[in-house]
Amino acid sequence: MSAHAETLNQCGSCASSCHHTAQLTKLGLKIRNWDYTVALAGNPNTGKSTIFNQLTGLHQHVGNWAGKTVTRAEGAFTLNGKKYKLVDLPGTYSLLSTSVDEEIARDFVLFGQPDVTVIVADATRLERNLNLVLQVLEITDRAVVALNLIDEAERNNLTVDERALARDLGVPVVPMAARRGAGVKELLNAIEMVASGQFSARPHRIKYADERLETAVETLAEQLRVEFDNLPNARWVALRLLEGDENIINAIETRTLGKVKEAGAFPSLVESEAR
Amino acid sequence: MTLDKLKMGRTAVVTGVRNQSTERRRLYDLGITPGTPIENVMPSPLGDPIAYRVRSAVIALRREQAQLIDVEE
Amino acid sequence: MTNNSTAILDAAARFRREMGDNLHDKLTEAIYADAGQIAARAVSSGEQSNGVNFGQFFDRLVTSRWFGFPLMILLLTVVFWLTIAGANIPSAMLGELLQGTVYNLLHDFASSLNAPWWLSGFLIDGVYLATAWVVSVMLPPMAIFFPLFTLLEDLGYLPRVAFNLDRLFKRAGAHGKQALTMMMGYGCNAAGVVSTRIIDSPRERLIAIITNNFAICNGRWGTLILIGAIFIGSTAPPALASLIAATSVVAIAILGVIFTLLVSAFLSKTWLKGEASSFSLELPPYRPPQIWQTLYKSIVDRTLIVLKRAVLMAAPAGAVIWLMSNVNIGEASVAAHLVSFLNPFGLLLGLNGVILVAYIVAIPANEIVVPTILMLTLNMAKSGLAQTGVMSGIDDDLQIRQVLTEMGGWTLLTGVNLMLFSLLHNPCSTTIWTIWQETKSLKWTTVATLLPVVLGIAVCFLTASVARLTGLI
Ligand SMILES: Nc1nc2c(ncn2[C@@H]2O[C@H](COP(=O)(O)OP(=O)(O)OP(=O)(O)O)[C@@H](O)[C@H]2O)c(=O)[nH]1
Ligand SMILES: [Mg+2]
């Protein structure tokens, strides 16, 4: 077995006591006056809701299939005196979503302005999961990668070198087996470091071959920031415009760009039919 | 050939996706991009859809979608 | 649209022409190229263990041409058989305790206080008794069924069911993920309706919403299991009774799937015309469930929550039933008027007036159908007399059967048609509200509400007519 498997096992055994040393208090639904907002994003079925439940003490439904969570759920915890609002999102394969549940996730990651985005990745399907991780790292440097299902990876004789991964991605990577509470303490640590700005990330950015692209993106992004007062992630929106993304073009025409809906609310069928 | 012609248990490499719409994006998001190996894992009891392994995930596609994906064995 | 946003869109279009159309592909390919490199550096795989092969072997089996469907039915039957066989004794024990011992204690206590008859009647024979019924009838089967179902879910079996059924859904012009929303509906239809958000095409999503009611929910499993046990199981020799009862419940569940497909096909040929859109469904690897944690969670998170809802609905329903049975208009009670008004129509459908009244009382929650039927049946039979002691005698299936056949005049047809009507009637009020929330369309909410009842009436009328013509009753 690999070295990190041992550390994990140690951690698994102290999962409950760790909470005391890290001074975590699960606050459930008592969400008020929070200091930081933390979003849980990731591919479907990677354990986001499991982690959410571990940190907040709530009981989001979990199940072994993609698409169990379809609404945005919120909960809270305090850690070393600071209060965090945690947002569980539906799973999504990329930030270019097409269904309502994926749109909820995308809108929050892009326009909800979370202080920390935890990207939950499945250690047994790392390559596919990195697609979303890299997309999110394009738009934020305040991110943590939770490398979940490490126990499953071990069962399948896969070892993931989380240090190499952290080096390549430029953000903290925390191996976890969330279902049995392993890695929770380390995740909290990483969230705290990133939220408080103690960790300065140098996230991986994709290099695009075409040089004209950079000028185009910056020109459009600047116009967007002016038009949609300080739109976050204007560069991302600009890229989508360059791709001719109809969703985004529509959002600009109807001036709904960047508006995040309330938790639980979503575009009704009639609205989406009209699109 | 197109993906729907791939026999069970065989692996091929994706050479392209024909459709231009959101469908193509969806397939790309699932990791079905040119150069990716893809294996026919098993058909469903009624023959359609078929489950394919791609980038270590198993994903079921209906025949109409498999027909959009060009592969080379 | 303002001038500025037009300007932005124009500029974007200009850049797009300069750089070509396939920018998105290039970007995605660039991302995947990086992802591939990073993953290759980070992941190393040792020897493949047996676990992988086991998963694949299992997958080939549960989705195989010959065994896929039979295994699905077998698994479902085993789950219900365990539920029915296992719930029998605890149900009887709970019944004896709640409707016997505690009930008598409460009445003794009330008479020691010299409470007026209407007060103790209202509180004990109304509110308390309805609640006690719901608990003893619903709790044991739920406490067995939910954990079993959750184990299957955690293992990863549900997406395989969707995979197996997809061909049929495609032919019905529906989305492949509709099968998954159906699975959610087996827990709760309101949750099932919300889960249709995973379907991206509005047309197919509406179909999924309208047909979700054909997935039998928590509130209805209890009714089906009980009636299946006392009317169908009891026709078989005792050793086979539970198995036959389980089979009858599975038959109703399968009928639900058939209705889902037929109605989906009908909708996609008429009001919601269109071709089945594409779909992709990930089959997650089997993950060994954590047995104890699953048991604990499904009991705390699911059973108790459903029970709480049932009790919250049963208490006021008990009060309503008691009042209806004890407030008279002219010679007879309100309940008697209602029942005799609906009785001819009920009988035409192979049901009766009591059942129809029960389904009206139970619009807020399907869970209370059986307790309502029992209380009304007893009240009708004994109308005018004091109720004390009557209900306390009924604490197992045999006695429930006796009450229904002897006092309610039920036959095998009544039992079968109640099971059919339980599958085919309007969604509960929570689900109706959720459908409205999700569609914001009065038209589709109405369709989703009324369509199943109309079907239920038609189907029950059909079976009743066949039974009559063939002289079965
Ligand atoms: N073996 C193992 N299983 C896990 C772990 N974490 C989660 N699971 C299981 O994985 C499945 C998916 O977990 P969820 O928390 O529902 O995943 P999710 O990311 O919220 O999924 P969606 O809401 O569908 O996007 C469940 O069956 C969990 O019990 C883990 O660390 N190890
Ligand atoms: Mg979830």
Structural summary, described in words:
The complex is a heterotrimer of chains A (275), B (73) and C (473). Chain A has twelve helices and eight strands. With 275 residues, chain A is an alpha/beta fold. Chain A folds into two domains: 18-195, P-loop containing nucleotide triphosphate hydrolases (Rossmann fold, 3-Layer(aba) Sandwich); 211-274. Chain A has a seven-stranded mixed beta sheet with strand order 1-3-4-2-5-6-8, with helices on both faces. In chain A, 52% of the residues are buried. The model of chain A is unreliable at 1-20 and 263-275 (pLDDT under 50). Chain B is of the alpha+beta class. Chain B has helices at 22-29, 63-66; strands at 11-17, 37-43, 50-54, 57-61, 69-72. With 473 residues, chain C is mainly α. Chain C has one domain (62-469). Chain C is built from 19 helices and four strands. Chain C has a two-stranded antiparallel ribbon with strand order 3-4. In chain C, helix 5 runs antiparallel to helix 12, helix 6 (158-171) packs across helix 7 (178-185) and helix 13 (334-348) packs across helix 14. The A-B interface holds A 93-94, 96, 98, 124-125, 127-128, 131 and B 22, 25-26, 29-31, 55-57. Strand 4 of chain B pairs antiparallel with strand 2 of chain C. Bound molecules: guanosine-5'-triphosphate and magnesium ion (MG).
